[in-house]
Every structure is written in C-alpha cells, then in structure tokens.
Amino acid sequence: MTILIVAPVMAATTGIIVSSIPSGASIYLDPSNSNDGYKGTTPQLITGLTTGSHYLRLTLEGYADATQSVNLSSNSPTWVTITMPSTPSATGSIKVSSFPSGANIYLDGTYTGTTPYTITDVPVGSHDVELTKLGYGNVIKIVNVSSGFQSLVFVSLFVTLPSTGSIKVSSVPSGANIYLDDTYAGTTPYTITGVSIGSHAVKLTLSGYGDVIQTVPVYYGLTTSVFVTLPVTLPSPTGSINVISIPSGANIYLDGTYAGITPHTITGVTEGDHDVELTKFGYGNVKKTVTVSSGSTVQVIVTLQRSTPKDPIISKL
To answer: pTM for this one?
Structure first.
C-alpha cells in the first residue's frame, strides 16, 4: 500500500509601512462587517499580513477619507505614503452683545473684540464665549455654531463688590513704622490698600516711644482710619559703680562682662544686685556683690592680695 503524505501549505506573510501627509491619520486595513480593521495611526508598521491585494482606508479630522489598494509581496514590507485630501472647514458666526456694552470678548480664551461685536469664520461646533468688564463679574456662555448660520449671545453683566478695603494710618509723632499682621507696610502717615476683608492687627513702633497694637476691621470698598498718639517711654532707672583697687590697674568684670580697668566708674547700671570682680596678674581675684539704686553711685574699694606662686611639679625619670 502506498501512503501519500500531504504537507500543509503555509501562506506567505509580509508587512506594510503606512504613512500619511499629514501624519496622525487612523488606519483601517481590509475592513469587514465583523472587524473595522483599525491598525493605529500613521506612521505605522503592520506585520503578519498575507501576500496579495489589500484595501487601505485612512481618516483624519479636517480631511476627506483616503482609500488605496495595495498589492503585497513576500520579499519585504511595502511602504505606502498617502497625502490626505483637505476639505474646506465649515464656519458660522457669533453676534455678541451685552448690557452694559463695552465688555471684552474672549472666544475659546482668545480676545476678539468688545461688545457689540460679530465674530466671523468661527468653525462649526461648540465654543466658549467669555465676557469681562471692570466692576462686573465675568460671564461664560457655551455657544453651538452651525455652518452658514449666525448664533446670538446676549449677556446682562452683574455688578461685583470689591473684595478688599484700605487702612489709613496716622500717628503723633509721624514717621512710625507700620506693621500689618506682623508684615512691614510703611511709615505714618500711610494708606495700606488691597487689605482683605476682616480683622487685622496694626502695630506702630518708633524709637523712644512705646509700641502700640490695635485690632482694625476692614470692610468692602471702604477705608478704615487709625490714629495713634505714641506714648513716650522713660529710660530704665540706673545708677553707677565707682571701682577703686590697691594697687590700681585691675581688670573689672561686671556680672561676668569686662567693664574697664581700675580706677573706673561704670555708668548706666540697672537697679538691683550685681557682681563686681577684679583680676590682676600676680594678685588673687576678688569678687564683691553690690546693690545699685537709681540715680546713686556705689563705691567699691578693694585691696588686692599678692598670690603665692605654687611649687613646680618635678617628675623624676
């Protein structure tokens, strides 16, 4: 018996490279009732295709569909470039009016004129029309434009209240530093503008005068006045310490801070107890506590004692 073995015939495959002018067109290859054949957008390499004839359809918004038959061989991918046929875009117009007139018109974010105004050559479809005018709230309308038709837009603008107020600050004497909510704002007299609505802290400072802080309310579109008479500040009560040493030339330290060499009078010392320490090379240090009263001078007289040098430490080898 002779057995006949029939080997399956493998269909040859190849590919196609599809590009378009302009690029970005949707590619449909051999569309059918069960499969639209979508293969992506140009440029695109499509592989695994059988050799022979194939049907291409390209679509791109703003362009007419392009179709082409392609015969593929098994040698190498076939390169197909298709120029998309342009189509004239359909347009309409938008007539824009407002009350009051003179509002700025923005079509899809682009300034186009002031009301009343007719915008021509507007592409068919949905568009945003925004109207703005100083002292009035902005209004946005969505407008559908049809080919060859004029769409009408009429807007009654509404008055808006200002969102800020002002603070007018004066002082006696003038020239005081102004701080609004701890932020420097200028010197008196001065008007702070663009202040948000609500309560704010206004602080005035001036050398030689006491600081003044006031809570100030701010209202829509109004100016709140603040007038402050700054209080004179008296200097802190102080006295003096007259320091004498025997021998003289000792270093003086007041509360740990160097203050001079004896004999010396330390002025501007605040009331209360203070430590006075004297040091001099070859003499022992001396510390005394003195009490200072306002307007008076305390005298400190110290006899320094020579210090005995210590015996050196000798290390025996």
So the answer is: 0.36
Per-residue tokens: 104: 């700025």
Tokens representing 239?
Answer: 């006295």
Compute and round to an integer the Cα radius of gyration of the chain: 47
CATH number of 238-303: 2.60.40.1120
Residue 265 structure tokens: 């009078």
- At the second CATH level, the architecture of 91-156 is Sandwich (2.60)
Q: What per-residue string of b and e applies to 152-177 under the rule 16 or more CB within 10 Å gives b?
A: ebebebeeeeeeebbbebebeeeebb
End-to-end CA distance of the chain: 122
Q: What is the DSSP letter of 86?
A: B
Q: In the numeric block, which tokens belong to residue 166?
A: 């002002």
| Long-range CB contact pairs, 49-53, < 8 A, 24+ | 49/13, 49/14, 49/15, 49/16, 50/11, 50/12, 50/13, 50/14, 51/11, 51/12, 51/13, 51/14
Cβ atoms of 106 and 130 within 8 Å: the answer is yes
Superfamily assignment of 164-229 in CATH? Carboxypeptidase-like, regulatory domain (2.60.40.1120)
Backbone φ/ψ region at 148: left (φ over 0), alpha (ψ -120 to 50), beta:
left
| DSSP conformation class of 314 | -
For the stretch 165-222, pLDDT in tens is 999 999 999 999 999 999 999 999 999 999 998 999 999 999 889 999 999 999 888 9
